[in-house]
Amino acid sequence: MATADGSLNARLEEMSPQKVGKLLGFYGSIAALVLVSFFPVIWMLITSLKPASEAVQFPVTYIPNTITLENYRIAFEQAPFLRYLFNSFVVASGTAIIDVFLGALAGYALSRLDFDYKLPVLLIILFSSMLPFISRLIPLFRLARDTMLLNDYIGLILPYAAFQLPFAVWIMQAYFKELPASLEEAGLMDGLTRLGVLFRIILPVSAPAMATSAIIVFIYAWNEFLFALTFMTEDKMRTITVGIALYQGEYTFPWGTISAAVVLSVVPLLLFMVFFQRKVVEGLTAGFGKA
Amino acid sequence: MGSANQPQDAGLSERVGVGLRDRAARYRELRLTESELATLLLAPVLGFLFVVSFYPIFDTVWASLHTGYVLPNRTQTFVGFENYGRLFGNGSFWNSLTVSLIYTFVSVPIELVLGLGVAILLNREFHGKYIAQAAILFPWALPTIINAKIWAWLFHGQYGVINDMLVRIGLLSQPFPFLAKPTVALGAMTFVTIWKTTSFMALILLAGLTGIPEHLYEASRMDGATKWRRFRDITLPLLKPTILVALIFRTLPAFQAFGLPFGLTNGGPGEATTTLVLFTHKITFNRLDFGQGSAAATMIGLFALTISMIYVTTLYEPEVR
To answer: Would the CB atoms of A178 and B3 count as touching at under 8 Å?
Structure first.
């Protein structure tokens, strides 16, 4: 493939027209895929910038005649979107922290310790990831209610952490397996206990795998809807997904303000994806692709 | 991921050093054997999974055999299969089962084919590969419920941009109420999920493709095999384990669809897009029929188990590896 050095023109001149055509076709397909992926959100952005009257107009205008931030002002006035975003952030971070910690413990045992019942334990953990969420919802709802955990961050963090734990364990054990045995031997020679080796040597060098699991778990918890809808009944405790789903607006056609709300909720996610793109791709690849 | 160490080497050196290290280590660690330490590390994880994942499954089955499950005073009466009787006599249950089966088994095969296409397209080195992958993956990262709201607007019967485009290119003479017609609404919902998750499918399959050694293709190329034959004889068989994983990890969520119908159509028109989980949630938390809801949740568990079993038994080959 083309290398980074050498100007584009020089490289194009070396190629046959057929090759140039192929390359254009390739990058054209990629561009088309990216456009298809982003069009719906771009459309929400365009709608959110139109005045209410222009949003509900047919034929639609692709470039707004008038640009206004009115929809954003109304959306902020009518619902506590910043509060929803904050709630989502707390829940998603809490879930990620628990899963990275427990995932590292279990992953270490499963990948680097020798014991008899390894396979059954691994199967139990993986099997738990296949259980339908709705089959766990009703008892967990009762449990949360009886322990006063409805409308509490912990009430969502604990189930989310359990649901995504198999993924975290899988990622961590796959990473630990690749580490050289000499790491542990050196630590043991230096007088560390096995637990000391885990916490002082293995975990510090496993930051990449921990970040990968944390990011995927975070996205999952940020996006979850079924439990969030059922467990968070008070408006001020709602996560962003529930806040958007139940947001009605005050007009017959509140699409301008709904679009503004959607854009507000997508921006943090977009920044997150841009910032952690490599980790997200690696996490999914390691988590599912190499199973 | 990480540096490539041969696991055999690690295993060997571990075995060589095992006698010496064991004695020293056991002394320093208050005589914890590896097996005891493993138990110590795994206990919190297994305990946690038991309380939050396994116990609720049993409790759901238990609740499905009783009435009065959620009442605070806990006067629960055993009613045998009465809740199941009411569930099976409920036309809405069978309707939602049909909706979920159509939705799942139309969307997943299409995602697999499209995902394979995208994976093959991406299976080469090029500038900005990670950015392209992350960009294509953006729909997957969108929260399902927010995505549902977005598409409800795109498909809007009067002012939707999809209607506008179709009218402009002459496929429609006037706006069409996509989400108000039963069959079309289910089709639209299926389309949206294909749009959202094809990239996820593609990424998993791409990981599998990357793992196929290049020399296999070269050998076959020298034998004069066509592109199609190389795909059929090398790519597909070697990709089978990855396809199995991809199918399981797409079918189970599709079968449990909740946020998409909730936000796109709220199950309508009528019950045309009411999936199994949406039906179960409504009957449990709107009508507060926890007995019938638990029976439905138990059935969903059985269906999910059946689907996984079918996939594993038909696609899994122990020899391949």
So the answer is: yes
* Identity of the residue in B2, B141, B252 whose CB atom sits nearest the CB atom of A175: B2
Say if residue A88 is in the same domain as residue A218.
yes
Q: Could you give the number of structural domains in chain B? A: 2
Does the residue B253 lie in any domain?
A: yes
Kindly state whether residue B72 falls inside one of the protein's structural domains.
no
Q: Are residues B154 and B288 in the same domain?
A: yes
Nearest CA in chain A to B209: A289
* Domain match, A14 and A132 both: no
- For residue A65, what pLDDT is reported? 85
Residues B2 and B114 in one domain: no
Distance from CA of B147 to the nearest CA of A (A): 9
Residue B140 sits in the same domain as residue B253: yes
Residue that is last in its domain, among B37, B64, B91: B64
Residue the block writes with tokens 């088309």: A32
Please tell me whether residues B152 and B288 are part of one structural domain. Answer: yes
Host H or E run for residue A259: helix A255-275
pLDDT tens digits along A135-162: 899 889 988 988 889 999 999 999 999 9
In 10 A of CB B98, how many CB atoms? 12
Boundaries of domain holding A16: 8-73
Q: ipTM, 2 decimals? A: 0.86
pLDDT bin (cut points 50, 70, 90) of residue B152 is very high
- Chain B residue numbers with beta carbons less than 8 Å from the beta carbon of A38 are 135, 138
How many beta carbons lie within 10 A of that of residue B141, not counting itself?
A: 22
Q: Which domain holds residue B60?
A: 1-64
The 10s digit of each residue's pLDDT in A197-254 is 888 888 888 888 898 889 889 999 999 999 999 999 998 999 999 998 888 765 666 8
Instruction: Give, to the nearest 10 degrees, the angle between helix A207-223 and helix A255-275.
Output: 170
Task: Pick the residue of A138, A179, A185 with the most B CBs within 10 A to test the interface with B by mutation.
Answer: A138
What's the pTM? Answer: 0.86
Please tell me the distance from the alpha carbon of residue B274 to that of residue B286, in angstroms, as a whole number.
14
Residues A52 and A180 in one domain: no
Measure Cα distances from B146 to A80, B17, B123, B258 in Å: 17, 55, 31, 12
Q: Nearest CA to CA, how far is A235 from chain B (Å)?
A: 17
Contact A289 B204 (CB under 8 A): yes
* Closest C-alpha among B267, B276, B262 to residue B101: B276
